[in-house]
Design goal:
Blueprint: E1 7-10, H1 20-33, H2 42-48, H3 53-60, H4 69-84, H5 94-103, E2 107-115, H6 116-126, E3 134-138, H7 147-156, E4 162-166, H8 169-177, E5 181-185, H9 192-196, E6 202-203
Parallel strand pairs: 1-2, 1-4, 2-3, 4-5, 5-6
Helix pairs in contact: 1-4
Length: 213
């Protein structure tokens, strides 16, 4: 069977890892501590969450004149997140999808805005680290963009025909930057309506990615 794509490039948070509830909890704790409005529901969070994270924080009301994002806010959030991260499971359907793709000999890569060592440790905890040919994270915890890392990968793999799968408009933008196809998953950090605005297919079950290989 000849497939359209040579590589499946996975996002991690909200696509492979079901960490949405934890992300909302950590963010709400930080907001409440500063007397800022908190998220009342999953739906309200999905309508607001965005990249880069520092700009998203600014829109939530954090005052960067009082608290620096890089040295105060990002470390505070990451510390809380890592305390609860061990309770976050694989997204439903991921194990089956990864197994199916592996059987097609399609190369599988993770490209994430998570810091590299943190990302590897999370994948090892989940027991799927060995399923991926390459694991690409950032060299910091600030989660601004993974576009540069995607462009570096494409430069190393000029003949690749990648398919990206992720749960945010940032994933769509990164895919577009490297001229790749993209499928967006609406069970993660952003709503279906927002994802649909990117013009790529939107799936509600991660196993549906198989149809786009």
């Amino acid at each position: 069977m000849t497939l359209k794509h040579t590589h499946l490039i996975w996002d991690f948070n909200g696509t492979i890892l079901q960490d949405i509830d934890l992300a909302i909890r950590c963010t709400n704790i930080m907001l409440a501590a500063r007397n800022l409005p908190t998220f009342a529901s999953l739906e309200s969070y999905r309508e607001v969450f965005d990249f880069p994270i520092d700009e998203y924080y600014r829109r939530l009301g954090f005052d960067f004149e009082k608290e620096d994002y890089d040295t105060v806010l990002a470390p505070e959030w990451v510390a809380m997140y890592m305390e609860g991260e061990s309770s976050c499971p694989l997204m439903d359907g991921v194990a089956e999808a990864v197994s199916f793709v592996r059987a097609t000999d399609t190369s599988q890569i993770i490209l994430s805005a998570t810091e590299q060592d943190m990302l590897t440790a999370q994948l090892e905890r989940l027991g799927i680290c060995g399923e991926f040919d390459e694991i690409i994270g950032l060299d910091n915890i600030h989660a601004r963009s993974k576009k540069a890392r995607a462009l570096e990968w494409k430069e190393r793999n000029p003949d690749a025909r990648p398919l990206f799968v992720g749960d945010t408009l940032h994933d769509a933008a990164v895919a577009a930057a490297v001229g790749a196809d993209c499928v967006l998953y609406c069970g993660g950090h952003q709503s279906r309506s927002r994802l649909a605005s990117a013009g790529y297919p939107v799936i509600s079950d991660i196993r549906e990615i198989i149809q786009y290989l």
